[in-house]
Amino acid sequence: MMPDIAQTGQAAGEWLPQAEVPAVMLDKVSKWYGNIVGMNDISLAISGGVTGLLGPNGAGKSTLFKILAGKLKPSQGTVRLFGIDPWKNTAPFARIGYVSENDALYDWMTALEFVTTLARLYGYTRDEARVKAERVLEFVDLKDVMHKEIGKFSKGMRQRVKIAHALVNDPELIILDEPLQGCDPLARTTIMNVIREFGAMGRTVIVSSHILEEIERITEQIVILNHGRLLALGNVHAIRDMLDAHPHSIALSTDRPRELGKAFLDHKEVFGVHFPEEGKLIIRTHNLGALHADLPQLITDSGFSVTAIDNPDDNLESILTYLTGGGD
Amino acid sequence: MAEKPRPLHDKVWSKLDRKATAILELTLRQYRTRLSTWAVLSVGVILVLITVLFYIEAMNSEIEAVDNDGDSVDSDGDGYPDGQENLLGTSMNNANSHPGLFDPPIPPDSAEDWINEDGYDFSSAKLGTSQGYDDDGDCRVKIGEVGWSSWVDENRNNISCDYFFEMRGFDLKVVADPNVDEDPDEDAYFKETLHRSFVLGFGKIGFVFVLGIFVPLFLATGLIRDEIADGTLHYLVTKPISRAEILLYRLLGYIALVWPYFIALAVLTGIITGFMGPSDGFFRFQDLLVWFGIALAACLLSLAYAALFMTMGTIHKYGMVAAIVFGVWEFAMAMLSVFEPEATVSRLSISHWGMVIVDGFSNMAWPDSQYLIALGESTSQYTDSPSGERIYFDEMPGTEAFSTFFHTTNLTGNPLQDVLIASGVLISMVIIILVIAQLVFKNKEID
Amino acid sequence: MEADENPNLPDAEFLGQTGAKVEGQTRLDAAYGSGDGDEQSIPSASVAGGTKQHEQAYLGTVFDQSYQSWGGSLNPRWARNWAILRHHVYGLFSKGHRPYGMATKLILFAAFLISLGDLGMSFISAVFSETEMHRVFGVSKDNLYGHVLGFWPRNAICFPIIAALLIGGIISEDRTHGTSAIYFSRPLNRIDYTAMKFLSVAIVLFMLIVGTLGIYYTGDILMQGEGWAFFLDTLPIFLGAALAGTILVFTYSSIGLALSSVSRGKFFPAVALLGIFLGMKLIAFLIYVLFERSVLYLLSPYDCVAHVGQALVGTTSTYDHPWTWSLMSLVVINAIALYILVSRVSSMEVTRE
Known about the structure:
The complex is a heterotrimer of chains A (328), B (447) and C (353). Chain A is an alpha/beta fold and 328 residues long. Chain A is built from 10 helices and 13 strands. In chain A, the strands form 3 sheets. Chain A has a 6-stranded mixed beta sheet, with helices on both faces. In chain A, β1 and β2 (36-46) form a beta hairpin. The longest helix of chain A is centred in the middle third of the chain and has 16 residues, at 185-200. Chain A is elongated, with a radius of gyration of 25 Å. Chain A starts with 23 loop residues before the first strand and ends in a 5-residue tail after the last helix. Chain B is mainly alpha-helical and 447 residues long. Chain B has 3 domains: 12-63 and 187-442, no CATH class; 73-114, no CATH class; 118-182, no CATH class. Helix content of chain B is 58%, strand content 4%. Chain B has 14 helices and 4 strands. Chain C is built from 15 helices and 2 strands. Chain C is mainly alpha-helical and 353 residues long. The longest helix of chain C is centred in the middle third of the chain and has 35 residues, at 190-224. Helix content of chain C is 65%, strand content 2%. In chain C, strands 1-2 form a two-stranded antiparallel ribbon. In chain C, a hairpin with a 2-residue loop joins β1 (12-14) and β2. Chain C folds into 2 domains: 3-59, no CATH class; 78-346, no CATH class. The chains are: A alpha/beta (328), B mainly alpha (447), C mainly alpha (353).
């Protein structure tokens, strides 16, 4: 039982994937920082293929990833990676590659040294780690610059080094936090190809972004988060269709709800009004944008005073319009 | 690749080794890329060199010989110093009575022969043992002159012309017959005590105290903290490796840098002072034990401090303030341990136990030190002031410094036991700190 | 979402020119091309200002470059500097200024109380009219000197810690947080910036070291009911001690700021400061005890100040070399520290590091 200082031996045997256990499983997970809620009661299971995690800044994407990476402890709920709690046990990380949103790297190392050193933390020998590092660096198209110091790399190259380091253990689950952020179109395409390739290989890949278009180019399976809550989950086209079919409503507070409702019924986009309580009016429509555009004019023409306008279910709509880059 | 799968324990072990060496190498290379590492380590070397320069200079200068018993003077002006006249039985105060009138006439000794003519010669470092030899033979003469034979044995141990050591309260005293070892060689005594004071003082203050506290403060506090601040810690924690392991291996990386540094400095100073110092042979081999003790104390202390400061570094905000405040507390306690080793409050500090180790080894290497101090205190000294006045001192030069830095083992009385206890305390401190550290670190959320 | 599609958009004012229909996002697009690069949509831009160019903007246009000098009025230099100084000093007492940690504030307060320990003892002796005790703790040459420059515990524990905590991050934190960019993008001279940082630290240290000396001195005289003669007799000693304290404050501040300007974190300068003060003192002390050479004290900033202070107050010197050497050494130490500080700050790159 001599310690393997010379590091000539072989790495430990591979883990056989268990098909019945989902790669990622969250059950009623919440996370708050003091009074601020980062994640609110999220339940989710992801297994196989590429999944895009969408949401504006502060939606809780990074919080979710940090919980998955064992960096944060969930305030409530259970998190399982391959059936194991990542906060208590680091064993599942042998099968995971994690790319943080943080741009920090060991700038004084060469790309090869960086990937090799971190690969050795998976228990590979020096030589194995080096071979694997060279392979992944070639995979992300950095082979010709791998002997250069990371500090001299451009943003896109740094991003690719980070991805390479996450791929070095041949992971079954890859978590990428904003991998496309700040990259030029060329680097972006390279990274997207890498991600797609991994998805095609049957690995589970989770990518976060706040731009829907980017995600659409990689995958159709998306998860939308906003304000720490799960908004939608599934195929991006299906979600869009459901959104269009979904009637929207606008709530108005006024002293003469009935008269005002009558004025609105004449509008071509409005298909119904109702009065939930005294002084309140709810208008139903299929085309929120058009109605919003005409709303001020309608109110002014009717001559009634309106004290408040509210969109009770605007979240998903506005988030999606935000994500697709439209609207204002 | 091996055909046969290896046994499980082999795999676990070799995996551990691989992760350990990976983090260790990373830590060392990180140190190498930082300017502050080099600055701190070279400041340490410069301090050591400056101190050694002062040492070398002192060793090459001569201490003026003092006639402690005043018998090199020729009181009656007949050309014979008083000591010689006294020894041969002629009168010191009568110019017409001197050994030149003997048959055959005895030529006068030069005055220098009666300076430093009766040095220390003690054979055993034990209480109550008869010591000393009256080199110049004036102990018996004095008694013969007066004619009371009981004066030969003034200390009443039934042996004439000797001395022995006795404990009086907390002090060791010399109980001597008259004129025994009364005029020792100042230069030899000074150099011997200065050498020992230097090794001890420099070991305690320079190594254990200044380097032992500040090197970990500079180099260990950032082991985890800098990673958190730079945002690179997640590269380590999101790997199949437990957080306790990360702490341990980071600490190993620190050890791999700092221990060789301390050992090299101790060996370097040990060799220089070993050759430069006063000795019968060409090298002071018995010092090596003390230098070993100093290196051991510095290594253990720096490990304990490193574990502590690393832990404080993982605590978000107040860890740093706590580290600085704690560092100063340790500094104060180390000072107390050097100058007042009996004070028990310093046992609450880490530095105290390092001092105990150095003290223990010095007691083992130089068991006669406290007897040497007692002898130095027993001989009266004087110098002539410019106005012609005689100023008396109680001690030989070098005694005071030596008694400042040398302490007898005060824990159990047995130096070896002291060393073992102190090492045990330090090691268990390290273990306790590491247990706390991994608890803190395990529950730390990393942003 | 082009600006012109919506006729209801009010006329905006841009760079003092009215009439342009400008909207935030398009303005950004025009200025920086803030798109991500590979969008599928057709790029568009609109232009602020000139009407003809405005119409042609969809087809692509070349802009006339015309610059106007800034016509506003700037506060005088002292007012801008005062703002920086205030920002740092007020932070100790109230929110909304440079934040000091709770622990730092507590330690500063503790140091303040410890510094007034001698006044407390003097107070006790006055209450119980213990003249013996008052002789030990009342105003005297040694006590005035000791209040500012006594080694144990003031200059061994108190003052180095507060200096380290105060000065540690004063410049380096600006660099790590990127806030130095906020300063240096204002109409502000870098030397002024450094001077105000220096002054703010020095003021706090001065309050703690020399301020408590003043409190002790006046407090003791009032409590003992000493007359004018005593006051006049002791005033020169007090002034000497206060001057020595000022030198101490200056030296600590300049060394600390120099260390803070060369390093990144808050911690390194603080520890380096402690290392220089205490480490040099100890090594010099070791040399003095062993070899009876006091020249190495010239390398220890504390001992140089203490030696000069002894000469100023007129107590017996504890050093073998003449005090002018210490003064020279002080000048050299401060000159080196200030040189490092100034050259470092004036060549500092204001990126977030």
